[in-house]
Amino acid sequence: MTADLAAWSDFNVAIVGATAALAGLVIVAASVNIREVIQARSVTARLGAGIVALVVALSIAAIGVIPALDVVAYGAIILALTAVGAVFPWHAARVILRTPPPSDDTRPPVIKAVIGFVPIAAYAVAGIAMLLGHPWGLYAAAAAALLTIASALLVSWIALVEVLR
């Protein structure tokens, strides 16, 4: 592991534990009302995007503790995982924008659709920064991990509340 990346080892280990626990909790919470979740396509898509975002964060943090990993290679890996992870919020956004909201929901669908892209965009910025050799790329990855946790919790909470409307 390079000296720069080695300094982030404890942070990455903590993120692995946190994201794994949160992904499990979201799955368990969704399974309590699985019939309602499955019937609401936009809720299912949003929960899927939230879980995938957590798995992407988990994977990026886990890869970050691999010994002798170069920061530039880490940036390339982050971009690859981000590209794969972007498929799910893209799908969720399409479903959200095509599904009529409940009559009592006054929030613009675009805002619901954009929230899922926040962690993906943050990781993309981090990966590009690392590829370009910017030292702040690791800080951007840390911010992306924290944004992922916040975004996934927000999306999951909202989706689980919406399913019970």
TrEMBL record:
Transmembrane segments: 12-32, 44-66, 72-92, 113-132, 138-160
Keywords, alphabetical: Membrane, Transmembrane, Transmembrane helix
Protein name (database record): Modulator of FtsH protease
